[in-house]
Amino acid sequence: MKIYVLGGVCSGKTWLTELISKKLKIPHYNLDDLYFTKKYDEKRSSVKRAQLIKKIAAKKNWVAEGVYSSWTMPLLQSADSVVIINPPTSIRIYRFFVREFKKKSFFKHKKFLEFVNFTKSAFKYNKKSQNKGFHHHVSVLKENQIKFKVLKTKKQIQDFVKSLK
Length: 165
Fold this sequence. Notes:
Elements: E1 2-7, H1 13-24, E2 28-30, H2 32-35, H3 46-58, E3 62-66, H4 73-78, E4 81-85, H5 89-102, H6 109-124, H7 134-143, E5 149-151, H8 154-163
Parallel strand pairs: 1-3, 1-4, 2-3, 4-5
Helix pairs in contact: 5-6
């Protein structure tokens, strides 16, 4: 089984893919690890990313997650199932706040500015005027005739996981 999970920051992608990975006993790939050589610091070359994506796509089973829908096309095209997690913006902002607050560096000036910027980008994720985000994901999938499901609620996510065998 090959499953690709798309969604914005703090939408629940990592949680869902780890759950699927454990249930189906298949490897989990966080695509940030392919995009960056060092977490959120140095970007990997597009050539190297393409090589890594092709290796994963060729495997029999995997679950991958990320905010990416363009350079990951070989994964999207080979996936048996593609889902977009799109919870309400308020939930994504709350999750981001909790995640950063736990780091105990939240009240440092830089972290607080990151939170403000994230809040702005969280609201933009669902706007049609954006050339990235939810509507971009949907557009890319439709243009490439890739079937997908949008999961917005915890119940929809739980039902999706239950349906996997």
